[in-house]
Amino acid sequence: MDSCLFCKIVRGEIPSRKVYEDDEIFVFHDINPARPVHLLVIPKKHITSLATSTEADVPVLGRMLVVANRLATEQGSPDGFRVIINTGRVGHQEVQHLHAHIVGGPDPVGPMLKQI
Ligand code: AMP
Ligand code: ZN
After folding, report:
1. Of 84, 80, 60, 64, nearest to 72 (Cα)?
2. pTM greater than the 0.85 cutoff
3. Burial of 115 (0-12, 13-18, 19+ CB in 10 A)
4. Fewest beta carbons within 10 Å, which of 2, 5, 72, 92?
5. Does the Cβ of 15 fall within 6 Å of ligand 1?
6. In the chain, what are the domains?
7. Which ligand is nearest to the Cα of residue 6, counting in written order?
8. How remote is the CA of residue 101 from the centroid of ligand 1, in Å?
9. Residue 101: active-site member
10. Whose CA is nearest to atom 13 of ligand 1?
11. Whose CA is closest to atom 18 on ligand 1?
């Protein structure tokens, strides 16, 4: 996707504070962190949202969660964290490339539906 912001980040055309990448996954710090730890875990392949994911995406979606757990611990949230995947209009998804927010830090992140 030529014009997609997160595809450009994966290609290095827009700078990011990269934390991790492998063949399938790219992880970077959110530019506007809501918590001391606020990572974005994305598939390198363009998937618009969880609402457009398919059975073929099961491996990459699983890998995103396993990597999220390891990086949250390494990046300063060893006692737990929250994973948020905003999806579509109702879910307030602003960037149209599937991404999981990993939010945490030393203190509890707050009520379930508090906006991040
Ligand atoms: P969402 O509302 O779930 O689509 O969230 C999009 C997230 O992307 C927001 O938390 C933004 O702060 C973050 N974001 C937007 N542009 C960038 C960027 N260039 N680098 C890192 N994070 C970004
Ligand atoms: Zn994309």
Report:
1. 80
2. yes
3. exposed
4. 2
5. no
6. 5-104 (3.30.428.10)
7. 2
8. 9
9. no
10. 30
11. 31
